[in-house]
Amino acid sequence: MTNQEAQERIRELSKDLHHYNYMYYQKHVSVVTDYKFDKLLEELIDLEEKFPQFKKDDSPSQRVGGTITKDFPTIKHRYRMLSLGNTYSKDDLLDFDKRLKKLLGDDKEIEYICELKFDGVSISLTYENGKLVTAATRGDGVQGDDVTANARTIRTVPISIQGNSFPANFEVRGEVFMPNKVFEAINAQRVKEGKDLYANPRNTASGTMKLQDSAEVAKRKLDAYLYFLLGDNLPYKTHEEAIKAVESWGFHVSPTYKRCTGIDAVMEYVNHWEKERKNLPVDTDGVVIKVNDIDLQEQLGFTSKSPRWAIAYKYKAESVSTVLNSITYQVGRTGSVTPVAELTPVQLAGTTVKRASLHNADEIESRLQLHENDTVFVEKGGEIIPKVTGVDLTKRAANAQAVKFIDHCPECGTALVRKDGEANHYCPNEKGCPPQIKGRIEHFIQRNALDIDSMGGETINQLFEKGLVKNVADLYDLTLKQLLSLDRFGEKSAHNLIEGLKQSKSISFARVLYGLGIRFVGKTVAQKLAVHFKTMEAIQKASHDELVAVEDIGGRIADSLIEHFKDTENLDVINRLKAAGLQFEDNTPVLQKDSDKLDGKTFVVSGTFQQFSRDEIKQKIEANGGKVVSSISKKLDYLIAGDKMGPSKLDKAKKLDVTMISEDEFVQMVGGPPQATPTAKSVNPTPGLFD
Ligand SMILES: NC(=O)c1ccc[n+]([C@@H]2O[C@H](COP(=O)([O-])OP(=O)(O)OC[C@H]3O[C@@H](n4cnc5c(N)ncnc54)[C@H](O)[C@@H]3O)[C@@H](O)[C@H]2O)c1
Ligand SMILES: [Zn+2]
Q1: Which of 302, 549, 583, 599 could connect to 625 by a Cys-Cys bridge, CB 3.0–4.6 Å?
Q2: Other Cβ atoms closer than 10 A to 539
Q3: 283-307: per-residue pLDDT in tens?
Q4: What residues are annotated to the active site?
Q5: DSSP label of 145
Q6: Where are the annotated segments for Disordered (predicted)?
Q7: Structural contact between residues 183 and 201, judged by C-beta atoms closer than 8 angstroms
């Protein structure tokens, strides 16, 4: 390779790697596989070693890959957060062990701690006097994003540590991840909603940690494993002791770590988990091998990017090649079109793979540049949904045609549209496109909406095919006779369905509104709209300004509502549902505002009370302008402590110095029990459930 070629290649590699880093850390998207990324980085490091004159200070080989964003305040790390040297080769592990022995000038077997390498996002948590004060992402290693509010939603991250055997100031580091079960459930829900699938748990976890709304983060049920303790003058001599201490303070430490003396024992651990890791509830992409003795760690020190006393051995994602037979296109409830690769069946990581996700047009035409009958590589992205990762160009026929994304809906023939800035194509034929119509009916009858569980997908199919149901209002015109004309539909099923429809007439307005499937009107939004406007009529009449004045209703939602009500067919459906007797008025009792005495104050209610039920006390707080929250934090104004309050609540409140008041003190604050509420008390049978 000439100097010029090397310079050119280094420039090219640096540019690509910078781009992949940007996409991975900022956009939570893997443009290439980790394996490919690591190989390119290795090539760059290699070239820079041979041609050091072309190595730049800002080369991806010299810096931790992440960056900070402008969406969050920045936190400067007290101790730099580094990356790890990594390898896919077992020989390199032997070299690593040899290198360390040489550096230490001692031939004695080294004691290592092996841990699994969890595939998520790194997090740094700092504690002062046992209280969580900050949580930061790794960022560029020097400073990271302040994601404290989001980290607080992770149930296994203690906000306050029990006991008193911990250092006054310390930092713990670990990995925030999304358990595979949670990831699958989220994707299953997205399928139902006709939305794009998330690619893998790691990117979903990293995207989730960067959400602005921590209530949304809480719903995503992230978890965290901690694996590193830092602080000044800590008493621990080994990494293992430190980890055990971290565990004893109530942090979530994966029990999979193991002390291994000598590299042979390390190899055994690596080999054991290569298969076994597939049974874990979380993705792992390798093993991290750390020198156990902290003195030795200090002797070995760091390079610019990673500690010399640790290395990551990464398992190669299993990949197979197979033939792409065709591409099919699925149209979801919202009209979004998802391409799916139909493959010659092949065995992969224990299952037969026949289909793989292709995401969108860019994936097909730009990233993969698929041609007909290509031989493609398939990997299990995050071990779950198989994914086409690349094309074996050596097997491509000379005359193969490039695949073009369809331009018309495969279901109804309407020209597809793609909105600016969106990756997906949509079929705009909302009213006439069968999967969209059927999808809307499925949405309407689901458990969170009208809850008509006597009706399944197959029934909807038949009703649609026979022309009996074209929209949700048609459901209420169905007759017993029509139902009995359906295949495999007996008396009993027919009666059940009619009964289900009848019962749905008492379902609350908020759920009916949600069931209509208006774009962007999810469960919470529907609830807010129903409570605020009380009637469908009022919502229909509301102006854009009036809509966005409601808490949590943004411009996009308002636009969508206004758009929906402009359509005469939609109005017709609403009117027919009304005529059929469905609820279009909110009848949750009107809360009378007593005063503004508690304006801006937050409360946690815990235990049981003499004069109030918990719901009453909550109503009273709100009626006086206060807000009820569910968890005790430093920022909390008052904890109203009743009888049988949970001891952990009490402890926490004391630790955080939260003001605790009794029921009587609360009554004095607002004056008298609520007038509007009935006398019968609904005592909460399980104290602690509410808070
Ligand atoms: N596919 C892509 O486009 C793309 C782009 C950028 C980076 N990446 C991937 O990310 C890697 C670089 O990321 P990185 O710098 O975080 O390095 P890394 O993933 O190789 O290792 C360091 C990280 O491992 C994590 N970790 C998990 N378990 C751990 C444990 N038990 N002990 C210590 N650390 C543990 C920590 O978060 C730590 O920051 C690349 O090697 C590549 O595989 C992929
Ligand atoms: Zn269509």
Answers
A1: 599
A2: 24
A3: 898 999 999 999 999 999 998 889 9
A4: 117
A5: E
A6: 670-691
A7: yes
Domain 591-691 has CATH 3.40.50.10190: yes
Asked whether 115 lines ligand 1 (CB < 6 A), one says: yes
Q: Which fold has domain 434-580?
A: DNA polymerase; domain 1 (1.10.150)
- Identify the CATH number of the domain defined by range 74-314: 3.30.470.30
For residue 682, pLDDT beyond 50: no
- pTM, entire model: 0.58
Task: Name the strand (E) or helix (H) holding 251.
Answer: none
Contact 220, 182 (CB under 8 A): yes
What HEC string does 74-85 produce? EEECCCCCCCCC
Contact yes or no for 145/137 (Cβ under 8 A):
yes
Distances from the Cα of 284 to the Cαs of 178, 220, 274, 288, 535, in angstroms? 11, 19, 10, 11, 50
pLDDT more than 90, % of the chain: 62
Distance CA 226, CA 213 (A): 24
Atom of ligand 1 nearest to the CA of 122: 37
User: Residues of CATH 1.10.287.610 domain(s) within the chain?
Assistant: 3-54
38 lines ligand 1 (CB under 6 A): yes
Single-letter code of the amino acid located at 448:
N
CA of 417 to the centre of ligand 2 (A): 11
Q: Is 547 annotated as a binding residue?
A: no
672, with CB counted inside 10 A (0-12, 13-18, 19+), is exposed
96-117 pLDDT, tens digit per residue, is 999 999 999 999 999 999 999 9
Q: How remote is the CA of residue 333 from the centroid of ligand 2, in Å?
A: 10
Query: Which residues lie closer than 8 Å to 641 by C-beta, 6 or more apart?
Result: 606, 607, 650, 653, 660, 661, 662
Start-end of CATH 3.40.50.10190 domains in the chain = 591-691
Q: Is 314 annotated as a binding residue?
A: yes
Q: Is the CB of 177 under 6 A from ligand 1?
A: no
CA of 19 to the centre of ligand 1 (A): 16
Q: Which fold has domain 3-54?
A: Helix Hairpins (1.10.287)
Does the complex come out with an ipTM higher than 0.90? Answer: yes
For 318-428, CATH number out of 2.40.40.20, 2.40.50.140, 3.40.50.11810, 3.55.40.10 equals 2.40.50.140
Which amino acid appears at position 57 of this protein? D
What is the token pair recorded at 145? Answer: 């994003």
